[in-house]
Amino acid sequence: MATRIVFLNGQETTVTETEDQVVEAVRRDHPNPVKLEGVDGIVMFVNWSHITSIAPHPEPPLVS
Length: 64
Known about the structure:
The protein is built from one helix and five strands; from the N terminus they run E-E-H-E-E-E.
């Protein structure tokens, strides 16, 4: 499941990694920034001081 990340400046991105994978990567490299690529192809270098929230990206509703 994709993960939505919200940053202090209000910017948001969605990455393909799970919430647990994102948290593990940021913790592993703390205090150094970790490189994350959004589903839109934009690469960001982030650390805990940049992040406001990390949460699973909601799945789009199924249309029947």
